[in-house]
Amino acid sequence: MRNSLQSQWLEPEAPTYGWLDHPSQRLRVLLLMFLLPSLAIGYRLVQLQVYRQAEFTHVFEATTTRIVEIPARNGRILASDGSLLAVDEENFELWVHYRWLEEPPHPDWLKRQANSRLSRRQRRDDKQVAAMTTTLLDERRQQWERIAHVTGVTPEELNQARQSVQTRIERMKQAVLEKQIQQQPVTAQPTRSIAEESSPHAVTAWLGWGQKLWQEFQQELTTPPPRAENGPLILAEELEPQRVLETLPKEAADEILAHPELYPGLEVRVRHHRTYPARQVASHLLGVRTPLREEEALERAKQWPQGDPLDYRTGDALGRSGLELAYDAQLRGLRGLKRLTLDRRGQIVEEVMTREVRHGADLYLSLDVEVQRTAEALLEQALLPDVIDAPGDPSTNDVENVTKPTRSTTPQGGSVVVIDVRTGQVIAAASAPGYDANVLTNPSATEWAQLTSDVRRPLYQRVTRMALAPGSTFKPLTAIAGLEAGMKAQAAIECAGYLDQPQRDRCLIFRHYGVGHGSTDLSDALCQSCNVYFFKLARMLGPTPLVEQARQFGFGQLTGIDLPFEQAGHLPSPQTNSAREPWYPGDTLGLAIGQSRLQVTPLQMARFMAAIANGGELLTPRLKTDQGPLLVTSFAETAGETTRPNVRKPALTPQTLQEVRHGLYRVVNDAQGTAYKTVRLKEVEICGKTGTAEAGSGVADHAWFAGYAPASQPRYAIVVVLEHGGSGGKEAGPMAREVIRRMHQLGLIPSGSLAKNED
């Protein structure tokens, strides 16, 4: 034995060593025992950190994308003098990040805010962290006190608004949690280890205690710590600003925007809403913009599958009527879009502007606000209950000023139209009764009921839609048809006051005084409004020349004005009448004096008078003009088609227009004229024609006046219509005179056009 006593007489044996007896071998084995597990662990770490890193870090690196809309302003509508008729007003709203209004504050958010203000070393000091947390809470309290002071809202109202927002979001959160609980399985599934997922074969559970021990060792070594399947629920609303105040004073908005360091977590957002500063002025022409309904948005989505070119969405203000509808594509502002990339904590990591804001283009009108206001005021006055007037004076042949002393007439509605005879530009286009355009943007139930239940139909656009019998204002066209057919203007007929029988086809003077006009030529017939003259002329011509001339001057057709929903009226003719309504000789007689089934709009009649005044050019009326006021700067570059009128010139001889103009001059300026007492103006010579159109048995007549001024160098055509207003000369004529007087005062009709006649 190696440790036994050695004998010197015995031969020593050769030593024998095992492979582990040598110290270096044992070290190698020991090193290998440590190295192999280390290699395995190292391999696993490399696998997890390099090859499978994304499986574990994607949750922390995940970002969300949010599109932020930048509101656009719709274009303004301006009158010829630059005054605003329609404009988008800015309404400021206060939005606060939910974590800044939440009470009590979220602990994780509060901790992050405190840590963001401390250095790494300070974060390890609990006292400093606690002190910073206290500072943050004080800042929150002071901020809400500043908000109350700046906005003028009491702290109690602010707290109520905050609580309302928080209650809403907490209810949403509770609903989501309850839904998650309902969707959870009854038994939880065991969590598989990463080793099991990466192993090519599953290890059987019944292989013995050694294999179980090895499996547990693997699981402890390779499986990550267990995590809750569902972490704390955080709604998107908790990471976004919430609206606290719907209306914020501009001074408060400026203060918050100027000092963002004093108002962390606050946003001032701008919302535009349409207003009409002139209120009732031109409300029928302007129309209205109201929010787009959900079903309408769906319909637009079907119409444009690739995307709405105007980007209309539910709640956006859409042009519904008038100019707001006709020029909606020009006035519509296109919102801007900004793409925000947020990390999992809601912090913005990237901002990209995907579409720039495009504000709507302004719309300039030829409308003169003062003339429009004057016309509307005269109409509103005319619609008030009137006083019974005395009959006219037969010695002056003022037959159209006659009213029955036993009847008082209150018009149901009315219209005044003034257009430039050279360009077709509309200077005034009034309808009555009117309404405040601001009411229609968001009417209450009571306001809407009042507007829709009014029998006078205040929402009715009478300028282009009210088609009535024009009465004697149509006689100039009958005169044109006769002259173009070869009739001599100086050829006289004898008027006994009736055509064939005293009971029918009579002149108004015969109906009231039992006399006729005597020997009458064309000028006399227009001046004194002799029905018998035009009856005989129509009987001689037949219906065809009348209908053809009426078509030449645009009756029975749309004028083409830049307003929606225009009515064409009705021009009867033997060709269009059906078998159930045959054409009778009496229809020709009625057509000659503007009765029968003839219906025209005020704008059509104004267009006709403009054609007589300008030499026979039939213009297309326009409200839009490309020439904006010099002192007004447009928000956006004005786009759209030119307002140069489309001209259609009926083939008329100069002598025809001269004879008709002479007759229209005498209507107002001759002592025998039907408008001499009520329309003649000392300052300006006016030409025109009165009309009292029968509306049917038991209802009042329609009152008309159609003319132009000044007589020598015509500038403007004017039409006044009162629906069931009575006498044209007595009711409509004075209104036309006052409008022209006001235009003269404003300088629209120059002083050089003074009348020659004196009172």
Walkthrough of the structure:
This protein has 759 residues and is an alpha+beta fold. The chain has three domains: 63-83 and 278-363, Penicillin-binding protein 2a (Domain 2) (Alpha-Beta Complex), CATH 3.90.1310.10; 92-176 and 234-271, no CATH class; 369-435 and 459-628 and 643-753, DD-peptidase/beta-lactamase superfamily (Beta-lactamase), CATH 3.40.710.10. Strands 2, 3, 4, 5 and 10 form a five-stranded mixed sheet that branches. A hairpin with a 5-residue loop joins strand 11 and strand 12 (426-432). It is elongated and about 175 Å long. This is Beta-lactam-inducible penicillin-binding protein. Residues 70-351 form the Penicillin-binding protein dimerisation domain. Residues 394-413 have a biased composition (Polar residues).
Q: What is the end-to-end distance? A: 163 Å
What percentage of amino acids are in beta strands?
5-15%
Question: Would you tell me the structural class of the helices and strands?
Answer: alpha+beta
Shape: elongated
CATH homologous superfamily identity of the largest domain: DD-peptidase/beta-lactamase superfamily
What's the total count of β strands? 17
Domain module count: 3
Summed over residues and divided by their number, the pLDDT gives a mean of 83
Instruction: Please tell me how large the radius of gyration is.
Output: 45 Å
The CATH class of the largest domain turns out to be Alpha Beta
Q: Specify the helix fraction band.
A: 25-40%
CATH architecture of the largest domain: 3-Layer(aba) Sandwich
Tell me the CATH topology of the largest domain. Beta-lactamase
